């Protein structure tokens, strides 16, 4: 059906991007290929392409953030933290990077670090659900039940709001969480031809 057709087109697109990148390995081809590979769950290849791109085009800060998210999926927590720290070095206060550091600490089983990092992430992006969830779980592990319950309740509220925005995202109207990243990537691509 429709899903199989979309998947086939994505696989075809990845093949074409690999060929285009062989001719011109600029930032646009590199990061578009990495993004398509990640969407196809070809995470090992996506990581390799992102790593090469981050090395060759360090000014494309969003690529470090996306690489960090892939590292999290592969449970490569030290690499994820390093990627998110690179983002923060270029964009202090980046809510995406702070949320990534929060998730890395939480998934790595470090509740003290997670509580600190997640609290910073919720201050930077109070309308992002993931840090609230990890904050609630970290506080619970630390025996801070009342604060944990409050954070998890906030997670549910924010998550409900995110779900209301999801139809707009699928229609190409990006929610506030993603708008800045998409704007930055567009500016970078426009400036590099």
Summarize this entry quickly.
With 193 residues, the protein is mostly helical. The protein has helices at residues 2-23, 27-39, 43-56, 61-73, 77-90, 95-107, 111-124, 129-141, 145-170, 176-191.
Can you walk through the features of this model?
By secondary structure, the protein is mainly alpha-helical. The protein is built from 10 helices and no strands. Helix 1 runs antiparallel to helix 2, helix 4 runs parallel beside helix 6 and helix 7 runs antiparallel to helix 8. The longest helix has 26 residues. It is elongated, with a radius of gyration of 18 Å. The termini are far apart. About 11% of the residues have low confidence.
Strand content: under 5%
Please state the overall shape, judged from the principal axes of the Cα atoms: elongated
| Helical residue percent band | over 70%
Label the structural class.
Answer: mainly alpha
- Succession of helices and strands: HHHHHHHHHH
Q: What is the CA–CA distance across the termini? A: 37 Å
Average pLDDT rating: 82
- Total helical elements: 10
Number of strands: 0
Q: Residue ranges: pLDDT <50 for 5 or more in a row?
A: 170-190
- Taking Cα atoms only, what radius of gyration do you get, to the nearest Å? 18 Å
Main sheet record:
none
């Amino acid at each position: 059906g429709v899903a199989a057709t979309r998947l086939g087109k994505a696989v075809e697109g990845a093949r074409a991007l690999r060929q285009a990148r062989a001719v011109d390995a600029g930032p646009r081809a590199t990061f578009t290929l990495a993004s398509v590979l990640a969407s196809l769950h070809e995470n090992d290849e996506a990581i390799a392409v992102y790593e090469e791109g981050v090395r060759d085009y360090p000014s494309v800060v969003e690529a470090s953030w996306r690489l960090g998210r892939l590292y999290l999926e592969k449970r490569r927590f030290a690499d994820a933290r390093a990627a998110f720290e690179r983002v923060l070095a270029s964009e202090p206060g980046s809510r995406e990077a702070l949320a990534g550091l929060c998730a890395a600490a939480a998934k790595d089983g470090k509740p003290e670090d997670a509580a600190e990092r997640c609290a910073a992430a919720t201050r930077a992006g109070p309308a992002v659900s993931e840090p609230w969830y990890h904050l609630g779980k970290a506080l619970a592990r630390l025996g801070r039940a009342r604060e944990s319950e409050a954070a998890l309740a906030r997670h549910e509220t924010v998550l409900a709001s995110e779900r209301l925005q999801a139809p707009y995202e699928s229609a190409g109207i990006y929610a506030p969480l993603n708008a800045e990243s998409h704007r930055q990537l567009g500016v970078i691509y426009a400036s590099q031809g």
